[in-house]
Design brief:
Its EC number is 3.6.1.27. Belongs to the UppP family. One of its GO terms (biological process) is regulation of cell shape. Its main location: membrane. The chain is an all-alpha fold and 272 residues long. The chain has one domain. Helix content is 80%, strand content 0%. It is built from 12 helices and no strands.
Length: 272
Amino acid sequence: MASLDSFELLVKYIFFGFVQGFTEPIPISSSGHLVILQDLFGLKMENLSFEILVNFGSLIAVLIIYRNDIIRLIQNGLRFMVKKEADAKEDFNFIFYLIVATIPAGVIGILFEDQIAETFDKSKTVGITLIITGIALWIIRNLRGKKGDSALTIKDAIIIGLAQSVALIPGISRSGATIVAAMLIGTKQETALRFSFLLYIPVSLGTLLLKIDDLFESTAQNLVIPYLLAFMTAIIATYFSLRWFMHIMARGNLKYFAFYCFIVGFIAFILL
């Protein structure tokens, strides 16, 4: 019986690691799906540290995919700071805008994270927020902006940052909110996608640092292997999901994610 319970525990964590990892990059809200699945199957993740760990797994996948952009930004950012070389200014500005866009979600998350989680941690509420996500995706489905990296402004960064803070609500997709905001202000799809996922890096790192004590406490409670398997699953699932989403964005097929959010949102609101 003990071995059966241990096997079920492993399956549970691998399953949630896959769901979190696969849904993190695409605009359908990973946190909202975790809420729905926990209610649907009667499975509960006992603490927030698990979600933080699998988010960190997703972060590693994002770092792998965008490694060349990250290296270039760091190198050129330092070149501009030290040598003031004009051709490095665009990347320096891009880094600055990422920092600016990080602030709203960081401040709101620190001040109101617990209240937001308690208020919106219900499937019916997530159903409503998923429908809202679907509407936003439907609005931008045919938009084709003209602003590239060099045309971004501090105002754009603040708008995208505020959109990311709204995504603290389960059911509001982080990638969806930031991409929608970026495209509504006229950015190209490629720029919107890159800014959104590079913006994910400081937010994920900040969350991990703030909650690292909880993570160590959980892994000390006989959860090392389940957490490790979920972590590895999240890395793999996020990597392939993000690669797939990049192709979807290039073809402009966001309407299918809108349909998905409508369907799942209505099911969650009516049946759960």
